[in-house]
Amino acid sequence: MRGEWVNMVLLNVDGVECRYGSVKVLEDVNLQVEGGDFVGILGPNGSGKTTLLKSISRVLKPHKGAILLNEADIYALKSVEVAKQMAVVPQETSIGFNFAALDIVLMGRNPHMGRFQMESEKDMAVARKVMNLTNTWHLAERPMNELSGGEKQRVIIARALAQEPKILLLDEPLTHLDIINQLEIMDLVKELCVKEKLIVLAVFHDFNLAARYCNTAIMITKGTVFAAGNLSDVLTSENIKNVFHVDAIVKKHLVTNSVFVIPLSPQKPAATRKCSIHLICGAGTGTALMKVLLDEGYCVTAGVLNVLDTDFETAQFLKIPVTSEAPFSPITEKTHAANLTMMRKASTIVLTSVPFGHGNVENLEAALEALEIGIPVFVVDEVPIESRDFTHGTAQALFAELKRKGAVFVKDQDELLSMLNVSEEKHGLAKEEKAKIISHLKPDGSHEESDITAKHEKTGGGTENK
Amino acid sequence: MSTDKVESTFFRRTSRWKLIVLLLIIALIITVIVSLNVGYAQIPFLDILSIIGKQIPGLNSLINSSSISAQNSAIILQIRMPRILAGVLVGAALAAAGVLYQGVFKNPMADSYVLGVSAGAAVGASVAILSGLSFAFFGLRLIQVAAFVGAVSAMFLVYNMSRVGSRVPVATLLLCGIAVNFFLFAVVGLLEVVAGDELHSIVFWLIGGFSNVLWKDIWAIVPFIVIGIVGAYFYARDLNLLAMGEETAHNLGVNVERSKQILLVLASLITAAAVSICGLVGFVGLMIPHLTRLLIGPDHRILLPTSTIIGAIFLLICDDIARVVATPFASTLELPVGIITMLFGGPFFIFLLKRKKGYAA
Known about the structure:
The structure holds two protein chains of two kinds. By secondary structure, chain A is α/β, with parallel strands linked by helices.
């Protein structure tokens, strides 16, 4: 906008403690940010995120500590002076009277106008520019009350930008926006942050959006800072578990190169575990079953699985005991024996529709051995063995043997679960998961996967271009 | 810079504001002159113009006033003129105060009743009426002074009761105001019960009217009303921003607590001054701001001046009707103007509201 990068803005939150009445809602918060920083504020409901923004935006004076804007105490400055430097996009906006969108955006020029001054050509030019940026110029003359939630939110963001701020505070700014608007607005904010050296502080509920845009993060719980620093150091599955009490998988995304988070549903602690089920699976065919069976209160074990296999990772995550083999290696005799020991403790064996090659055909032999010592074996025969036998017939022969010796063949996971008396609701969930995985495994399902990859690349590329 | 349709529309709109105000002022002057012609005594229109012209220093020598009777001159200058100016001032004051109350409270139902101002004035006036005393302060009647003092006291009482630390939350203010309002009107009710012969006076005062307005009453309220409205205009843009919510206004550079305090004090002083000479003329403060908003939009920089003038014109017309409507039945009977404002204002407002498809704000 102005290119005055010399005027680097500094914001210092120095040992801030905030109270509502006598209730302490923030304690000893320290934060030091400068132009170009995009800070994500993360934390569960009621942890003090909004309070922190309020104290920074001069609404709630801290009980202790200070907020320093370029080393000046923000509470000693005039509202107008602060408003020239800092803009806030609030969580909720209610407009008292029916102003047009352009009027609302022009209100962002208030700190730059004298008491009796009318909007100048320059103010209008700024309003027009920010409304073009936020894709709201076509709404300029529409009454605010007639706009949709997303349109309103974009107008409010335009108003904040019309202040030409050096610091932008966003309190869950994306609540009413659909996905394309979320990305467009955040791309815009990110660009301003980088190019104009803005400080952006944003409260996020969506870890993945935070991960995509923030370079630093502060995680708050119960009014205190739990973690602060580089985003990848703050947004870890350990911190998420501690603060949000949710298990989550945190990984680096191959396409966007940012961290991404997959939260998992909270797991009920089963007071009394039912009997134990051993899964012979792999390549993701057991993932859905593991979760469902655990939720149903069964003890679950699995093996042999290669380290890095999807099912292995799921098992690790769900803390399921696994007999494992090194990545991409055939099952050794030692591992095979260990697996057999594990299987002897199980009361049932379940064999999923996993493809068999020379690397894992031993698992079939193990199933046969288990059957021979009297442990019931369920075979989920969803994909015909012919199409997933990569052992030139060995697996098919073992399959026939299993059938002959009395293994129970079920046509799909549904049938298996109903035989195990798993509730209908859980059924449905497992079915969806399963369908996804199976379609990837089927030879003719491979094109779907490439479709997804292509889409990812497209989105990623588009983002960078902006 | 390339011009854009939206931009030029905006600038055309704001540049039209001065013209709108000018046209309304002309309309007000015409209404004043026409109103001077309304009344029991039939005075030729040209005579009225001559009588007024006589009062303007430059025109004085040019007008031949030999044909005008001293009686007609007195009717115009001593009876009709103060009454008309009272209508203008009170109408302007109540409408302007309504704009300020509705703006600060972000509430379309807000008017001088919400802070207990009207109720305070009513208690003051009722006590004065019942006291039967008739001494005067600087030439003003006791009832006026008492109403003014009652109004201002009620406002300060409500404002201070609503204070939480250094802030005065609007919701608390509204609730305190309503509570005080009920309490004070209960006191008025009590006074009415024990009033006896004076009941008629109290009831008349509560409805509001302009009979017996004198020049010195006008001079007493002019400073409050003019200073109040002009002062409030300094904060017109703050009112726009307050409509976004106090926190947003604050983030956009408004010193919210100070603006709110100044605006409420000004609104209450304006109201107190107005009701002190005419009683509780209802509906103007509530309706005129809405009506004006329907016509010209919500921007307080134009809403405040236009509401003020429209309020003046409206109350003046209502008072004209009040003066003549009962004449056919009894030559000296006048209705209190408060009855007219409510009787005709209500249906007219609903008509406007319906034409705008029900969007009041």
